[in-house]
């Protein structure tokens, strides 16, 4: 499936001007909605983007998905996640 990225652009007399809006200026409500849909690892990475994203992450409820690396088998023996 192809993914398309749309960038905001404006044309000025001197040529194209890119990025009319900065990612750090996204509305807080929108950032909260995004954070609430992220898995554990993506949530942790996204909150390190910039101070405003970190602030939004603090105001978001993390996804209730339990990270697979924290699941313990019934026999309670810890195993490496790369073991077969």
From TrEMBL:
Start and end residues of each F-box domain: 26-66
Pfam families from the UniProt entry: F-box (PF00646)
UniProt-listed InterPro entries: F-box-like_dom_sf (IPR036047), F-box_dom (IPR001810)
SMART domains: FBOX (SM00256)
Highest taxon in the source lineage: Eukaryota
UniProt-recorded name of the protein: F-box domain-containing protein
Native species: Brassica oleracea var. oleracea
């Amino acid at each position: 499936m192809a993914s398309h990225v749309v960038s905001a652009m404006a044309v000025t007399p001197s040529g194209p001007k890119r990025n009319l809006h900065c990612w750090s200026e996204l509305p807080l409500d929108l950032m909260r909605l995004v954070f609430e849909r992220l898995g554990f690892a993506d949530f942790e990475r996204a909150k390190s983007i910039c101070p405003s994203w970190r602030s939004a992450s603090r105001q978001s409820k993390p996804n209730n998905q339990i990270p697979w690396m924290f699941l313990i088998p019934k026999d309670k023996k810890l195993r490496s996640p790369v073991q077969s």
